[in-house]
Amino acid sequence: MERLYFEVPGIGRKDDAIAYINEFYEYKSDINGVGGLHRFLDNYEGWLEKLEADYVRVPGEEKVPARTYFLVRESDRRIVGMINIRTVLNERLSKYGGHIGYSIRPTERGKGYNKINLYLGLKVLDRCRVRTAFLDADLDNPASWRTMEALGGERIREYYDDEDAHCVVVDYNIDVKKALAEHPEYEEMIMQPRGQQKKVRNIAIVSLSSGIIGEPFIRFEVEVGLRRLKEYGLNVKFMPNALKGLEYVRAHPEKRAEDLLAAFRDPEIDMILCAIGGDDTYKLLPYLFVHNELAEAVTDKIFLGFSDTTVNHLMLHKVGLKTFYGQAFLSDLCELGPEMHPYTRKYFEELIETGGIREIRPSDVWYGEREAFTPEQVGKQLPARPNQGFELLQGPPVFSGKILGGCIDSMYDFFNGDRYADMPVLCRKYHLFPDAEDWKGRILLLESSEEKPTPEAYRQALEYLKETGVFGAVSGVLAGKPMDETYAEEYKQLLVEVIDRPELPIVFNLNIGHAMPRCIMPFGVEATVDAEKQVIRFAE
Predict the structure, then answer these.
(1) CB 116 within 8 A of CB 189
(2) Alpha helix segments (H runs only) across 272-389
(3) What is the pLDDT of residues 147-164, one digit of tens each?
(4) Which of 146, 432, 482, 505 could form a disulfide with 476 if both were Cys (CB 3.0 to 4.6 A apart)?
(5) Which stretch of DSSP H or E encloses residue 226?
């Protein structure tokens, strides 16, 4: 039995993809479902960039978010088909075109491959919470519409298209969940390629700062996030103290530490996901370092969190673990909109599927802060605003190094005891902030919190960092977009003024940290920033 799988297009498939399209020209066959590849035969790399943009696109009158896949045969890794899946429809596509376009290469037809192609496409739509898939086909292409009927497609319209196809077109609706439930036999004919099985299957959620996810008033948000994780096929384990509420978690830093250590020791856990930030995770320090507890427990797992979790990232850096900065359970998986923000979702999916992040590009849009977090907000999309991309404030546009850093508010508290008098004391005692030698050649990441620090506070934080020698050691600085772009111009001016090294590259306006949407930034992996090409690439 031949088995098939979806493969995300990559640069290594350039020759195979071009050969796929050329076969259609050779057989004088119509080309469908290829995401526009036939228009990029002389610029395959440009097509890959287009697919990246398609994936995170905000729905509009002209274009909608879409995903394009190769359908690959396991036995010889040949591309036998392609599919283009629109995860949201605008008014035009809801009448003409629909959710899915697909094709099978001429020399591979008649083998039932397109049924698997469509079945896999419906699984993608199911993960995106599309309940009814709309498709169309030319009436004189029975192979296409019979494939739809094989998956339970119901013909809803037949008409003559005198604008585009200039032929009779038939429209179909497919009940997505029903189609998947009624055809379990196709599961035996699909697989993920060897070496590309989903990296993450079991997630542990920890409350290392705030215990808010344990409060009854927020349970509806937690349910949203749990549903999304389960739709990815992930097993979720809340660590024993994660759901015990604000007061208990605040009063028991030793229990928070126990949860983190237990998650690292659990051989079944692939990824540790922080529930949310807060402001006092530094209190875990004695319970993780007095007897080298963290160093002895840590294992090679994915660790993801941001905000106050900056402190935990530096704890894990101290014991040699590479981590991932930029998203959290409540802030991102539990987003109250109809789905995770597309840009945010793209990076989360890449992380759980591959165990890493290949590159980061700017989002086309950004979103303001949600004004209320109530059950009435579930399903309400935040308005999108145009984003300007990476902004080079000074220095050469291309630079390299391993990235480390986080929330500048948390770093301020490393050195200033106004919030917690003992935080600077404990951070010094356990040598939490890396010394200048450790920063040598690294790239410093800074992003600001929802507290929207005043320019005066931002300046003081930069002055504290400057006193450590970090700006004299690093190869560059990355700064995240502030929430609602508050004080953006002031922050840019302060970065240049306080750092006072004109030759040091500073890039502003990254979609990282507290402003939405959010990417995921690997810490401890060699990175190359190219501000002109608007990309950060990672070596691993």
Answers:
(1) yes
(2) 285-289, 293-297, 310-318, 342-354
(3) 999 999 999 999 998 877
(4) 505
(5) helix 219-231
